[in-house]
């Protein structure tokens, strides 16, 4: 029987597994996807550039845990280009206008002296894409303890252990189980016997999954034409026909690229999927000219990923707000369940950095401490 079963192979689950491995705890991790990383997804562009279609940035000024981990792992980083200015395209029939970002109001305004670093707040990216963090965490772990393509369907409290039932028909038992998943997704997709307390279920249901409604696109380019024009690649597109709402430079040493957040509502994206590459290229041409010459187009619709987006997230389509706005639920999400045999994890359960990679790491730290105490009290 396992001491700890971790369900979810995102950054929270991998960081927790790493700490359990260091403590010589008998653990195993189960991930429903055929890959590790969860909402971290890095693909390689046609020019070799790593393109993040999921989590992209961390902020050293406000996120000490991930900043220290990146340093400990010796992962090279890049500053997000940000001179305090951006192009604003608010009319599809007119050229974009250069404006300054006002950090006090969150608006792009004319006549304000540029404030370098104001738009992205000192954000940094990993030179190898955020997948480099996932790979570095996984490299610390014995491969035989990482089980991909194992989707959990049911948890059953047996009194002295928990039974895990997977969709391929396999069953195993563990003394303790950690659900390192977005709370809504766990409630949506895993049958829990006995059911969790009503207050816990309400907290899980009331906590939006960060990024669940989002879609991101990235286009590798032959050269950073925007820099030759004196721009940093930052742009907002606010007119009604916008395809990308926000654009930013995604270049690295391997090659130039632009990326952005898709403006289309989740319910409409499937209708535009076949034409999306042309639409993306057309919008970037409106911003930076027809000589931009993208080499391809890559995108990820997280709302279409059933291992990310719950039914409630899909219905809200981004209207549920940031999970950090639902701080009242955190106490319920962090409580031990089934007499300490079941714990909820994932970035949405953190009090700080909620929804971000910082929150995922803080959740893993909390769970490590809770499991240490539980295993000392009841080996």
Structure report:
By secondary structure, the protein is α/β, with parallel strands linked by helices. The chain has two domains: 169 residues, FAD/NAD(P)-binding domain, CATH 3.50.50; 180 residues, Alpha-Beta Complex (Polyamine Oxidase, Chain A, domain 2), CATH 3.90.660.10. Helices cover 25% and strands 25% of the residues. Strands 1, 2, 10, 11, 12, 13, 14 and 20 form an eight-stranded mixed β-sheet that branches. The protein has an eight-stranded mixed β-sheet with strand order 8-7-6-16-17-18-15-19, with helices on one face. Strand 6 and strand 7 form a beta hairpin. Helix 4 packs across helix 5. The relative contact order is 0.19. The model has no long low-confidence stretch (mean pLDDT 95).
Main sheet overview: 8 strands, mixed
Shape assignment: elongated
User: What is the string of helix and strand elements?
Assistant: EHEEEHEEEEEHEEEEHEHEHEEEHEHHEH
* Distinct helical segment count: 10
Compute the number of structural domains: 2
What distance lies between the first and last C-alpha atoms, to the nearest angstrom?
A: 13 Å
Descriptive keywords:
8-stranded mixed β-sheet, Polyamine Oxidase, Chain A, domain 2, elongated, 2 domains, FAD/NAD(P)-binding domain, 379 residues, single chain, alpha/beta
How is this fold's topology laid out?
Blueprint: E1 2-7, H1 11-22, E2 27-31, E3 42-44, E4 50-52, H2 64-72, E5 77-79, E6 85-89, E7 97-102, E8 107-109, E9 124-126, H3 131-139, E10 146-148, E11 152-157, E12 162-166, E13 171-179, H4 183-189, E14 191-193, H5 198-205, E15 215-221, H6 225-228, E16 235-237, E17 244-249, E18 256-262, H7 276-288, E19 298-301, H8 311-316, H9 330-334, E20 342-344, H10 357-377
Parallel strand pairs: 1-2, 1-13, 2-10, 6-16, 11-14, 13-20
Antiparallel strand pairs: 3-4, 5-9, 6-7, 7-8, 11-12, 12-13, 15-18, 15-19, 16-17, 17-18
């Amino acid at each position: 029987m396992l001491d700890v079963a971790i369900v979810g192979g995102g950054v929270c689950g991998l960081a927790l597994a790493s700490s359990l491995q260091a403590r010589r705890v008998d653990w195993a991790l189960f991930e429903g996807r055929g890959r590790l990383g969860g909402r971290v997804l890095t693909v390689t562009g046609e020019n070799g550039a790593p393109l993040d279609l999921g989590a992209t940035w961390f902020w050293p000024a406000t996120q000490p845990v991930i900043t220290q981990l990146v340093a400990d792992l010796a992962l090279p980083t890049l500053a997000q280009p940000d001179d305090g200015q951006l192009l604003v395209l608010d009319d599809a029939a007119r050229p974009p206008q250069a404006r300054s970002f006002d950090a006090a109001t969150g608006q792009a305004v004319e006549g304000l002296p540029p404030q370098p670093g104001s738009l992205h707040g000192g954000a940094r990216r990993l030179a190898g894409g955020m997948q480099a963090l996932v790979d570095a965490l996984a490299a610390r772990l014995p491969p035989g303890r990482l089980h991909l393509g194992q989707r959990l369907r049911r948890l059953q409290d047996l009194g002295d252990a928990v039974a895990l039932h997977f969709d391929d028909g396999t069953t195993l038992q563990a003394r303790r189980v950690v659900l390192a998943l977005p709370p809504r997704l766990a409630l949506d997709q895993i049958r829990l016997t006995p059911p969790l307390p009503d207050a816990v279920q309400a907290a899980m249901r009331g906590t939006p999954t960060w990024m669940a409604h989002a879609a991101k696109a990235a286009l590798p380019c032959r050269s950073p034409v925007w820099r030759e024009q004196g721009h940093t690649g930052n742009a907002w597109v606010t007119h009604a026909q916008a395809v990308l709402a926000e654009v930013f430079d995604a270049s690295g040493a391997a090659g130039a690229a632009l990326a952005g957040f898709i403006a289309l509502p989740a319910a409409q994206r499937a209708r535009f999927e076949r034409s999306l590459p042309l639409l993306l290229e057309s919008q970037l041409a409106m911003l930076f000219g027809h000589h931009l010459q993208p080499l391809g187009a890559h995108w990820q619709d997280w709302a279409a990923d059933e291992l990310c987006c719950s039914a409630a997230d899909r219905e809200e389509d981004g209207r549920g707000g940031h999970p950090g706005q639902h701080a009242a639920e955190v106490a319920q999400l962090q409580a031990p369940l089934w007499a300490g045999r079941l714990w909820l994890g994932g970035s949405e359960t953190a009090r700080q950095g909620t929804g971000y990679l910082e929150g995922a790491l803080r959740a893993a730290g909390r769970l490590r401490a809770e499991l240490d105490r539980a295993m000392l009290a009841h080996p």
